[in-house]
């Protein structure tokens, strides 16, 4: 049974990056955590783009108008794909991206601007004590995609896109995107507790295996299995040294 969206760790460091991570890419059958409008609603609360109260309002609006619910999901998926293309171009660009990547990103920016323009057109100005803000709550059926469009706008215009990283797949990472907010910009893994430690443990096993004397491959030759399995303490000590 595929994992539920509520089990999806939020590692992006920004709702817009967490949105991109709701679709697994590559492989023969990529899993979409935003599988239906119900999953989208739960994820929106999880990531904080709407509140519990707003989720109830959206749920009512979507029940009254199922077509609007599906339009909302399609809009969010559209924004997700556009964001992915833009962020991918930003990541690739550091290593010299191709012209096709930049053309795709440019087209995605046009589509993202249209989504954001639609959201702003539905928004209203609200006087909030010391300042005026945009409130995207005039059309409950469109609240979810409008808040996502706002998040996309926010990350593209305020984040340092050279700090967008991809958890390195070729080194055993998961491929999720995240915003590196570390002081020196050297973060490599989406979450050290997950991918980083898994990869380090795997490397440790590989190094131990490579360090074994020749002829010790077969357990039947009298070499205890435990001899090639580091103790928990040794594993931790080694991991710290990496
Ligand atoms: Zn990862």
UniProtKB/TrEMBL annotation:
Name the domain of life. Answer: Bacteria
Q: Give the protein name, as stated in the record.
A: Zinc finger CGNR domain-containing protein
Q: Which organism is it from?
A: Micromonospora endophytica
What PANTHER family does this protein map onto?
BLL6575 PROTEIN
Domain (Zinc finger CGNR) ranges: 163-208
Q: State the taxonomy lineage.
A: Bacteria, Bacillati, Actinomycetota, Actinomycetes, Micromonosporales
| InterPro entries reported for this sequence | ABATE, ABATE_dom_sf, Znf_CGNR
């Amino acid at each position: 049974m595929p994992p539920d969206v509520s089990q999806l760790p939020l590692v992006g460091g920004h709702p817009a990056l967490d949105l991109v991570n709701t679709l697994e890419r590559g492989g023969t059958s990529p899993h979409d955590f935003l599988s239906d409008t119900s999953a989208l609603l739960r994820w929106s609360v999880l990531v904080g783009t709407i509140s519990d109260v707003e989720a109830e309002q959206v749920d009512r609006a979507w029940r009254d108008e199922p077509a609007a619910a599906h339009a909302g999901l399609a809009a969010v998926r559209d924004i997700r794909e556009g964001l992915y293309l833009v962020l991918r171009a930003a990541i690739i660009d550091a290593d010299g991206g191709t012209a096709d990547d930049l053309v795709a990103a440019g087209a995605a920016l046009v589509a993202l601007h249209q989504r954001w323009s639609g959201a702003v057109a539905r928004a209203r100005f609200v006087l909030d004590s010391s300042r005026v803000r945009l409130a995207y709550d005039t059309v409950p059926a469109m609240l979810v995609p409008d808040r996502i469009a706002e998040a996309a706008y926010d990350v593209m215009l305020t984040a340092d896109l050279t700090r967008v990283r991809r958890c390195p797949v070729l080194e055993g990472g998961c491929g999720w995107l995240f915003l590196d907010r570390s002081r020196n910009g050297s973060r490599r893994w989406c979450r050290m507790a997950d991918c980083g430690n898994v990869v380090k443990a795997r490397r440790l096993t590989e190094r131990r295996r490579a360090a074994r004397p020749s002829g010790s491959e077969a357990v039947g030759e009298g070499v205890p299995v435990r001899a090639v399995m580091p103790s928990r303490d040794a594993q931790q000590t080694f991991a710290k040294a990496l």
